[in-house]
Amino acid sequence: MPVEDVAPSAAWEALKSDPKALLVDVRTDAEWNFVGLPDLGEAGKQPALIPWQLYPSMQVNGSFTDHLHRAGATAETPLYFLCRSGARSLAAAQAAQAAGYPKAFNVADGFEGPPDAEGHRGKVAGWKAEGLPWRQR
């Protein structure tokens, strides 16, 4: 079954309305520290911070699905995967589905989306561009 892309605003609504829904931010520690994080306080939640690739080697995290399980994910948990622009999160969602988590969704355009004409992210599409809550770590 292919992973469905969902708009950041649709993921936010699902996170607020479904107590079981979980946002899995698959970016690196450096990105969380320097770019920011989705602020899920209004939904009464925290994002699960599980890197898909390990910085600085960018090798795929071999313990990724173990970390999902430790974050409380089950086969019934709607999982919304988020990265910078939607590519790593799609790979992570596909791996989650293959590991027995069928309710895996990719947050389209990620946290920052594609770069604008000046090469800056966070203004064209994605979590930040849609004006969804976020904070610096």
Indicate the CATH architecture.
Answer: 3-Layer(aba) Sandwich
Given as residue ranges, the uncertain stretches (5+ residues, pLDDT < 50) are none
Characterize the overall form: globular
Count of extended strands: 9
Gyration radius from CA atoms, angstroms: 14 Å
Distance between the termini: 35 Å
When the domains are counted, the total is 1
Mean pLDDT across residues: 97
Name the CATH class.
Alpha Beta
- What is the CATH superfamily classification? Rhodanese-like domain
Task: Find the CATH topology.
Answer: Oxidized Rhodanese, domain 1
Helix content: 25-40%
Tally of helical runs: 4
Largest beta-sheet details:
5 strands, parallel
Secondary structural class = alpha/beta
Strand order of the largest sheet: 1-8-7-2-4
Q: Give the ordered list of helices and strands.
A: EHEHEEEEHEHEE
Q: In percent, how much strand structure appears in the residues?
A: 15-25%
